[in-house]
Specification:
Elements (H helix, E strand, L loop, with lengths): L14 E4 L3 H4 L3 H10 L5 E6 L5 H13 L4 E6 L9 H9 L2 E4 L4 H8 L3 H11 L3 E5 L1 H4 L4 E6 L10 E5 L7 E4 L8 H10 L4 E5 L3 E5 L4 E6 L3 E5 L5 E3 L10 E3 L2 E5 L3 E4 L4 E4 L2
Parallel strand pairs: 1-5, 2-3, 2-4, 4-5, 8-9
Antiparallel strand pairs: 1-10, 6-7, 9-12, 10-11, 11-16, 12-15, 13-14, 16-17
Helix pairs in contact: 4-6
Amino acid sequence: MSRAKAPTGGTRGFIVPIGGDGRRIRKAAILRRFAQLCGGSRAHIGIISTVSDSHDAGSRYERAFRDLRVDRVSLLKFETRADCELERNLNVLDSADGIFLMGSDPVHLSETLGSTSVAQKIRSRNAQGMHVAGTSAGAAFLSEQMIAGGQSGTTPRADIVQLAPGLGLIGQLVIDQHFRHQDRLGRLLMALTYNPLAIGIGLDEDTAAFIGPDHRLEVVGSGGITIVDPSQLQHSAIHPGRRHAPVSVIGLHLDILVEGNLYDLTAHTASIKR
């Protein structure tokens, strides 16, 4: 899915992938920063859940935003694709200043939301200025190409990652979450070997990338973000008959960023916030 075009003279909303771990994030600066971005005490934030057993998690995020004095919080349950076509749900998206997409399974997110009226509405409203955050699997789902599954490990192998279409809010980006905690470097490297025009973002838990309409990223949270840039990739070799064998990848550039660090996704440069 391709991102919607911003209207002439308009400003696209922020995209905020979050590395996961909702128990800690409620105590961190990430939700506060997102709430302020959406308008603070005047904001209307919609929380999207696609899993039937995640009601408690949705309620926790709802309470967390209310504790931050957000004016209106709407908890939306999309358990079937039919739910994504209901006018009352689309009306909430029309009035929201921000959408918070909860994590579950990225494939389930795609199966439930992909190519529905809700997905189209989120893309068009983000192009018009609505901010969109996603946590855990919801973070991976934000980009055009998402990591749908895979295995842990540092070394890239052809069989270590599965890819699928995402929501399409931002192109040329591959996002992975629970990164350091789940040892997911190998699968991100392999995803970039398949997509050498993209930049890889590995999000630690309790850590977010606030990506502005100018494609500049700022790190917020207690962990780190691993940026993998394959734009100068010199060599990769995948053997079709040896899918479990290590893959040679030469010429990658890697940065580790922490809170306050910046990254320009267009210029491919990292910097320290002054």
